[in-house]
Design goal:
The structure is a single chain. The chain has 25 helices and no strands. By secondary structure, it is an all-alpha fold. Among the domains are: 2-150, no CATH class; 326-390, no CATH class. It has helices at 2-13, 19-29, 32-40, 43-46, 49-70, 77-98, 104-119, 132-150, 156-165, 168-183, 189-194, 197-207, 210-226, 228-232, 237-245, 251-264, 268-274, 280-288, 293-306, 310-318, 323-331, 334-346, 351-360, 363-372, 375-389. Helix 5 (49-70) runs antiparallel to helix 6, helix 6 (77-98) runs antiparallel to helix 7 and helix 9 (156-165) packs antiparallel against helix 10.
Length: 390
């Protein structure tokens, strides 16, 4: 994008029409590359979806600016330059909101250039009336800047109201404000519980846009990390069901959802309830076998924790993950061994599943059950061995 910016600056400074206005526009735009360079130096920030989307918006505006500066046939050049400058300012405002987690100095650089873009006028002798589109963008960007300027003056009640009833855009802003409260320690844990923020976040998790869902889960993980009391507020089955739905989403949301469920799994009520949620274990097994190493690692840990319940172990086997079942065959009580062997005898096994069960060590404990067990144990193990051998 830096190359694109340099091209726009060059075209603007060499324009043969309205040379002074285009030159001023070029001088403003020359302040953008240092900001882009600083972003490029921080790969962690660049990986955030909100940053990527704001940069895509900025790149689109720069492409339009390039077309404008190359054109020699503009009907209203001054007005078009102003509108284009405001549009770029609007995109910088979006970048400003997305960059709340970076340093204050960097946000100030973005904010300063954004205000200069939005306030730019290239004909001091006359009053230019911006198009409705430009006015809308200006109003949007003003709101963006007010987030940065007024955040310290917003009460937690205002934040909760927008969290509960705001549009997707207002909700995104209120999430950022809530993060600021938490980061600056203006919002203590008791207040979070009293104001039912956790319940509101889970409710919005079901209905909001992808970027907001990701932010919600990340914020819930931050809250849960504080202490077990916070986790106890997240054990309701409808809350957990909302998180499980995120296991089916894109990779980043899926990774955070697995992480949140793992974070909550030291609460006994969560362990009891997760396995009952339709599709949860199937999705965890799919994630375990997926290509995201972080999500796979967390899914493996969570499945291991859930396998302490023998019904969960059976569900895992039905989903093609047999290690917990085999572990019960090796070390479980006689009743659990019979339960697992009986289940194994009834499963529809592919050749790959049979190979996996053999590699996981299912044969030896089944043979031992047949040789040393009582009648019920002998019958269940024999049926399981027959299913494995056919």
């Amino acid at each position: 994008m830096k190359v694109l910016t340099d091209e726009v600056v060059s075209f603007a400074k060499n324009s043969e029409i309205e040379a002074e206005a285009f030159s001023e526009f070029g001088m403003l735009l020359e302040k953008l590359p240092p900001i882009l360079n600083e972003l490029n130096d921080n790969s962690t920030i660049l990986d955030k979806p909100s940053i990527r989307k704001s940069l895509e918006s900025l790149e689109n505006e720069l492409q339009r600016a390039k077309t404008l500066t190359k054109s020699s046939n503009l009907r209203h050049p001054i007005k078009q330059i102003e509108d284009m400058t405001h549009d770029i300012g609007r995109s910088l405002g979006v970048l400003l909101v997305a960059s709340l987690e970076v340093s204050i100095d960097f946000r100030e650089k973005i904010g300063t250039l954004q205000r200069q873009m939005m306030n730019a006028r290239f004909d001091g002798s006359s009053s230019i009336t911006s198009s409705p589109k430009s006015e809308l963008f200006a109003n949007e960007t003003k709101t963006v800047w007010e987030i940065e300027e007024e955040i310290v003056n917003v009460s937690i009640d205002d934040v909760i109201l927008q969290l509960k009833n705001g549009s997707d855009e207002e909700f995104a802003v209120s999430l950022l404000r809530l993060k600021e409260f938490m980061r600056s320690e203006k919002l203590d844990g008791v207040l979070i519980n009293e104001e039912a923020i956790i319940a509101i976040l889970f409710k919005r998790l079901v209905s909001c846009k992808a970027d907001n869902r990701l932010s919600i889960i990340q914020l819930l993980r931050s809250i849960a990390f504080q202490n077990d009391e916070k986790k106890e507020k997240m054990v309701e089955i409808e809350f957990l069901s909302a998180v499980v739905k995120s296991l089916t989403r894109d990779s980043e949301e899926r990774r955070e959802a697995v992480g949140l469920l793992l974070d909550l799994s030291n609460v006994s009520a969560v362990r009891r309830r997760i396995g009952r949620i339709q599709g949860c274990i199937v999705m965890l097994v799919a994630i375990l076998n997926g290509d995201d190493p972080v999500a796979s690692h967390d899914a493996a840990k969570l499945l291991d924790i859930l396998s302490s319940n023998n019904q969960n172990a059976l569900h895992m086997a039905e989903a093609g993950y047999f290690r917990p079942l085999v572990q019960y065959l090796k070390e479980g009580s006689d009743m659990n061994k019979i339960l697992m062997a009986t289940a194994l005898s009834r499963l529809e096994l592919t050749d790959h599943s049979k190979l996996t069960l053999g590699e996981d060590g299912a044969i030896e404990p089944l043979v031992k059950m047949f040789i040393t067990g009582k009648l019920e144990s002998k019958l269940s193990s024999l049926n399981a061995l027959q299913n494995l051998s056919t």
